[in-house]
Amino acid sequence: MKENFKFVLRVTVIHIVTYILCGMVFSLVFNYKELFQLGNAEYFMRPFDSISSLIGPVIQIVRGLLFGLVLLRLKESVIETKRGWLKLWAIIVVIGIINTPGPGFSSIEGIVYTQLPLEIHIKGAPEILVQTLLFSCLVANPIKLKGMPFFEKNKIPLLSAVLAGVMFSLSGVVTALILKADVMAGMTDAGAFIVMFAAIIAVFFVCKWYRETEFRQKNIILPLCFYLVLAAAPTVYNYLTGSVFASWLTLAINAVPVVILFIINYYAGKRNEP
User: Fold this and answer.
1) What's the pTM?
2) By three-state DSSP, how is residue 221 classified?
3) Which of 25, 94, 97, 217 lies most in the core, judged by the most C-beta atoms within 10 Å?
4) Which residues constitute the domain of residue 228?
């Protein structure tokens, strides 16, 4: 069960990272904002800057878990065999892209039965193919951290920093929805990105300190530090700059990431105790 859990978790993380990375790169290369407005695409796809598009990365957690659970059945018969990455990629490409049951982008059904311009199918294919290739390679060939002392020693602080960045952004989206503010307003605020970046760096070093110290009150100091950089700091910044997100509500919303990060670090520390 422990090995299966680790496998599903690893597949989920790989899917989320490759999905977001490829999405960012190819959306810039092919200008998805304009591409999705070609022909009938505007009736098929939601606007590029819509709320649904912004919260899309959150849905990838569910998709990643589903991939992990299904691929457990192919772990020994496909993934761990010779050229397992190529076999896995072929399965995904044929079943998940080209030969989908419904008319999806770049699929046979999509090209034949939808009225979407051929340009969309062609320009949409590279992202899907590259993302699934990276996904297949990383799933079949897990990165060994033993040869990289820094990553091996700082797995939890690095994971916490990445999660802090993701949850920082998601908290902003949730706040915007509750306040009925323009979500995109935060995307153009350079100062907000500086605050987020500073919070990510702070989370990394605080987590590193937490794992390396024996200070008795560290279980009190850790969540307080998290709350300071993830909840208090952005709230103060929003009020000082007159941001549309200025609200004491953020102090409550951003408490959720604080709790999640503390639980991860607390139980990771317990697991390493003799």
Assistant:
1) 0.61
2) helix
3) 97
4) 147-272
